[in-house]
Amino acid sequence: MKTTFRSRILASYIFLIAVPLILLGVVYYRTSLQVVTEQAQRNVYEIVKKNNALMDTKLGIIEQNSLALFVDKDLFRVFSNLDPTNEADIFDADRQVSSVLSKYFTLNEDVYAYQLWTSYFTFGQMLPQGDPTQSDVYHKAQEAGGKIVWYPTYDFVDMFDQPYLQGGKLDFRHLFSATRYLDFSYLNNTTLEKMAPGVERPVLTISFKLEALRSLYEDSFPENSRYLVMNADYQVVASSDPGKVAQQYKEPWLERVQRENSGTLRMTLDGEAVIVCFDRSAVTGWISVVWTPESTLVSSLVPVIRTSSLLMVVVMGILAMVFAYFMADRITNPIKKLLGAMRSVGGGDFQTQVAYHSNDEFGILLHRFNRMNEQIRLLVTENYEIKLREQEAEIQALSMQMNPHFLYNTLNVMNWTAIENGQKELSKMLVCLSNMLHYTSRKDWGAVHLSEETEWMSNYFYIMGARFEDKFAVSYEIDPQLYEYKVPRLLFQPFVENAILHGFDQMETGGVIRIRGWIEDDTRHYEIADNGRGMSEDTVHAILYQESSSIGIKNMIARIQLMYGGEYGISISSAPGSGTSVLIRLPLHPQN
């Protein structure tokens, strides 16, 4: 009887604890797998967008340089005075034209050939093209009437009708091109001179080998990934499948990709679950599509997740069995003691004190069990809640350290990779970003020394200068005495960011940010001024006072007033076309 009761209690505890543990392990495994998959999906999507941005930057330079040819004085003079029937004039013109084109395009390592096509001669680099003016590339440029045309990858032999090259090994077999119809003009003092109506206008053709795209995609995505770059007409520009290049490839799922322009999808292709990431180029209009098997993204982590889940279940199961055995023993031992006390009383030992409210054994058992159970419950609950709060605090602390620590390590790996690859500019940008992250992730959000703030801005300006190709310059005029005082952290950040992203957004070069600091009437003054496009009075009012505008500036005003009082803060002076000046006023001595 005694053994049966103990066994039932033990089995009940094991069952009640083991079942939730198994369910918890399954949920943990599935949730971890889902989180890892979603993170991998975001990573691949970011790579696609960054690859597109990198290619847009390179091709955007080509587009800008081609625009400059419209007003090139040397090309205007050459083609205005050229006699197409004079062979000597043509060869002399070719020499001059080649020199001009090389000035614009020879420094771009992705450019394979740059040419000016006319019906009587091909100026620039020579390729076995026959008469290129009979090609579809030439006709598309003519139809565009001066707008740049990004012609997708084509077969050189077919495009220029050169069948004798069919069996040869050509390193330029597949090319894609940027073409533009050039109608030269020349500003002579205040008079705009145009080419005579009878002069044939050439077509500029900048050609790129397919490897310029292939190298970008094949080295940056997870193993077993496939990629596709195509235009709006489903013409394949580049692909992991060489057989699709220069062909039209139209599948039902690609229609959704073309409509949405940028994003991610999860679907099944060829019986395999894949993650599709896509993004459209702002320069060429081509869309880049990468699809990766889900199994590839998580293959290295699945064993780790499975092992950790199984280990957790096993360890917790053992602990549950030990705990269940302990609880069963705590329950049955009082019964033994109670029966022994009852035997002593039955034997005549009246000194034994046993409290009970009824004359049956179960009444006494329930009474004792209830008291013991209540005490145990209070003790266990109290200890459990204390331990739980300690664990939650510890987990929170670890979580707060995890993300910056992970990012520092990741940036460090990227920095060493950049150094090993000779990318000193990228390495310096990564170091700057790491310093900025360290500065912004510090636990203490109190005031900092001005030197720390200016150091953070130097890192920020370096990264933004690299991003916008030195479209702006920065100058400092700060009273050295101000470096003895502290300022709120990230005091200048929202204002310099607005100057770069909004003030200079319509400028190519010439932007200036001036940061000044001086002391006047026991007040510290800091000014951030730019020569950007400026703002209207309504815009300034909206930034300072409307709830939905410029959260960063409003937060900084609130921080200043909380730290120093309502009489200090920020004022903005601006007018359209006249730049913007932001004045920050802080007390010379901190408020109590």
TrEMBL record:
<keyword id="KW-0418">Kinase</keyword>
<feature type="transmembrane region" description="Helical">
    <location>
        <begin position="309"/>
        <end position="328"/>
    </location>
</feature>
<feature type="domain" description="HAMP">
    <location>
        <begin position="329"/>
        <end position="381"/>
    </location>
</feature>
<dbReference type="Pfam" id="PF06580">
    <property type="entry name" value="His_kinase"/>
</dbReference>
<keyword id="KW-1133">Transmembrane helix</keyword>
<dbReference type="GO" id="GO:0016301">
    <property type="term" value="F:kinase activity"/>
</dbReference>
<keyword id="KW-0812">Transmembrane</keyword>
<protein>
    <submittedName>
        <fullName>Sensor histidine kinase</fullName>
    </submittedName>
</protein>
<dbReference type="InterPro" id="IPR003594">
    <property type="entry name" value="HATPase_dom"/>
</dbReference>
<keyword id="KW-0808">Transferase</keyword>
<keyword id="KW-0902">Two-component regulatory system</keyword>
<dbReference type="Pfam" id="PF02518">
    <property type="entry name" value="HATPase_c"/>
</dbReference>
<feature type="transmembrane region" description="Helical">
    <location>
        <begin position="9"/>
        <end position="29"/>
    </location>
</feature>
<keyword id="KW-0597">Phosphoprotein</keyword>
<dbReference type="Pfam" id="PF00672">
    <property type="entry name" value="HAMP"/>
</dbReference>
<dbReference type="InterPro" id="IPR010559">
    <property type="entry name" value="Sig_transdc_His_kin_internal"/>
</dbReference>
<keyword id="KW-1003">Cell membrane</keyword>
<dbReference type="InterPro" id="IPR003660">
    <property type="entry name" value="HAMP_dom"/>
</dbReference>
<keyword id="KW-0067">ATP-binding</keyword>
<keyword id="KW-0472">Membrane</keyword>
<keyword id="KW-0547">Nucleotide-binding</keyword>
<dbReference type="InterPro" id="IPR050640">
    <property type="entry name" value="Bact_2-comp_sensor_kinase"/>
</dbReference>
